[in-house]
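STRUCTURE:
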C-alpha cells in the first residue's frame, strides 16, 4: 500500500498514526481516572466524607467511560475507512469539549473547594452518558 493522496483522501499509511493517537488518548483518559482515585486513597462511600463522595463520582464516570469505549469500538469496527476518519475527528472534538466544559462547570460551581472533584467527575459522567447515547445512533 502506498502513502499517497487519492481522490483528495489520505491513503491508509497516512491515517494509521492519527488513529493510533486517538486510541492512545482514550486509553490515557481511562487510566488517569482510575489512577487519581487510587492516589487519593479514598474509596466510594455515598454517606461519607467529601473525599469519599468525590471517589463515588469518579467511579461513576469510570463506569460511563467504560461503556462509551465499548460502544465507540463497536461503532468504529462497523464503519468503512472514510467513516472511521469522520468518527475519529468527531471524537477528538468531543474529548476537547468534555474537558473544557467540565473544568468550566467545576470552576464555576466549586473553584478551590473540596467539592470541585465531585462536580468535575459528575459533569464528565453526565456528558459521557450523553455522548454514548449519541454514538449509538451516530451517522457519518
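SEQUENCE:
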Amino acid at each position: 500500500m502506498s502513502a499517497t493522496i487519492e481522490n483528495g483522501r489520505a491513503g491508509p499509511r497516512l491515517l494509521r498514526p492519527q488513529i493510533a493517537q486517538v486510541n492512545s488518548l482514550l486509553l490515557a483518559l481511562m487510566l488517569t481516572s482510575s489512577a487519581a482515585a487510587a492516589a487519593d486513597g479514598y474509596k466510594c462511600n455515598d454517606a461519607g466524607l467529601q473525599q469519599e463522595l468525590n471517589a463515588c463520582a469518579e467511579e461513576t464516570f469510570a463506569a460511563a467511560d467504560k461503556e462509551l469505549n465499548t460502544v465507540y469500538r463497536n461503532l468504529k469496527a462497523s464503519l468503512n475507512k472514510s467513516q472511521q476518519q469522520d468518527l475519529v475527528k468527531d471524537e477528538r472534538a468531543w474529548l476537547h469539549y468534555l474537558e473544557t466544559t467540565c473544568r468550566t462547570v467545576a470552576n464555576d460551581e466549586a473553584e478551590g473547594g473540596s467539592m470541585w472533584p465531585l462536580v468535575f467527575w459528575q459533569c464528565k459522567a453526565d456528558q459521557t452518558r450523553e455522548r454514548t447515547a449519541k454514538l449509538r445512533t451516530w451517522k457519518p
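REMARK: DSSP finds four helices and two strands in the chain.
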